[in-house]
Specification:
Blueprint: H1 5-11, H2 17-32, E1 38-40, E2 43-46, H3 51-67, E3 75-78, H4 88-91, H5 95-110, E4 135-136, H6 139-149, H7 158-167, E5 169-171, E6 185-189, H8 197-209, E7 214-217, H9 224-237, E8 244-245, E9 263-266, H10 268-277, E10 287-290, H11 297-307, E11 315-320, H12 322-331, H13 333-340, E12 342-346, E13 362-365, H14 368-377, E14 381-384, H15 387-390
Parallel strand pairs: 2-3, 2-4, 6-7, 6-9, 7-8, 10-11, 10-13, 11-12, 13-14
Antiparallel strand pairs: 1-5
Helix pairs in contact: 2-7, 3-5, 6-9, 8-9, 8-10, 9-14, 11-13
Length: about 400
């Protein structure tokens, strides 16, 4: 890898041990992926936050960085932890878990990472511009920011994104390069999609293409929430970091469809079969969890309108960031949801929280990403469907 004189000083420890250790991580990644150099980045999204996934060892690593006076040097935001940081007691999160979880988030704050605690940082202020280089480690956010916004990031691991946040650089390879951002699969969707269909489509295609770049020809026009759901499913069933939608996403014209040999046709039956496959039981869910990735204000508005002046039979969580919840409070949506018997849960989500220790057995979700992860990460049954399928009223 080519290093500038300034980067050589950083890697040799002239700016301190924290910078040197971070450079070691980035240079090792660059060598693995044959990066030609480092590139300056404008933002980072750091994962590895939930105590459920990083445990005591992760906390110790963060505390070591704090002792070395590590600090982020660019706009850096934090992924969801395993609890609602403000209301974990009221919501019944385990106390021992919650105490350790708060220590992890406090450690990240000391490192200069903003406590946004969301997998949708592009909804709360971390919004890169088209073609900007960034280092993000939340897979659904990487898919969104590459595809819908047109910024440039690889799927980073938590330590790599944190090192990039400290140094302000990342290895120049993969989706930072022009020639890697063209599609190598054409996906012709023969049926209109609505609601959870977008997650089902992403689940199908992620399994088939792995880490390749699909190009979708859709039968109807998606909104940004649909694209968010599609990308999350693509990233969870496969490792898709970039996709294109004809006439929708900003870089679809990079692809010459006539040069692509891999073609897939998705029928209405394919979508229905996948929706059925994503459920592990036909039991009624005792907890319905929405917001994976975190719900936008528009999604919360739609839900509030649906349950207005009704009473929910099963327990309902809508997961979002504290910033979006503040807007929902102001708009009156939170009041409507709480009067119906639901809760808006901040910071966390059903995948990284310890829901398996909270007395639940069957989780209802409208997210293919959540349906894919809950059985393995939480050891619980899952029911996948649209909101209308999941929420039961008294």
């Amino acid at each position: 890898m080519y290093l500038s004189k300034e980067e050589e000083k950083m890697s040799e420890g002239e700016y301190g041990e924290t910078i040197r250790k971070s450079m070691d991580i980035l240079l090792a990644l660059g060598e693995i992926y044959n990066a030609s150099k480092l590139v300056d980045i404008t933002s980072a999204q750091v994962s590895g936050v939930s105590y459920k996934t990083i445990g005591d060892a992760g906390l110790e690593y963060l505390e070591d960085l704090i002792r070395d006076n590590a600090k982020a040097t660019i706009n850096s935001t934090l992924n969801p932890p395993g609890i609602d940081l403000n209301n974990w007691k009221e919501l019944g999160f385990p106390e021992d878990f919650s105490i350790k979880q708060n220590k992890i988030v406090e450690a990240y704050e000391k490192l200069g990472i903003s406590k946004t605690c969301t997998c949708t940082p592009y909804l709360v202020g971390n919004v890169p511009r088209f073609n900007e280089h960034i280092s993000w480690s939340e897979s659904s956010a990487v898919a969104y920011v590459n595809s819908v916004i047109g910024a440039r990031s690889n799927r980073e691991g938590g330590p790599g994104a944190l090192a990039a946040a400290i140094v302000g650089k990342t290895p120049f390879y993969g989706f930072h390069l022009d020639d890697v951002r063209t599609a190598n699969w054409i996906v012709n969707v023969e049926t209109p999609l609505v609601g959870a269909d977008f997650g089902a489509l992403g689940y199908i295609i992620g399994q088939k293409v792995g880490g390749d770049v699909p190009y979708f020809i859709l039968n109807n026009t998606p909104d940004n929430n649909d694209l968010k759901v599609l990308g999350a499913a693509l990233a969870s069933s496969g490792s898709v970091a970039l996709y294109h939608v004809e006439n929708i996403t900003p870089e679809f014209k990079l692809t010459n469809k006539n040069e692509i040999e891999n073609n897939l046709n998705i029928s209405h039956k394919d979508i229905l079969d996948t929706r059925e496959q994503l459920s592990t039981t036909d039991k009624e869910p005792d907890l319905v969890c929405l917001g994976c990735p975190h719900a936008s204000l528009e999604e919360i508005k739609r839900l509030a309108n649906y349950i207005y002046r009704k009473t929910i039979k099963n327990k309902l969580w809508i997961c979002t960031s504290i910033a979006v919840k503040a807007l929902a409070d102001r708009m009156g949506y939170t009041d409507i949801i709480e009067k119906a018997g639901g809760n808006i849960i901040c910071d966390t989500c059903m995948v990284v929280s310890p829901i398996e220790d909270m007395g639940f057995e069957v989780i209802g979700v409208n997210s293919a990403k959540a349906a894919n992860y809950i059985p393995s990460m939480c050891n619980l049954e899952v029911v996948f469907g649209d909101i209308e399928d999941l929420i039961q009223f008294k």
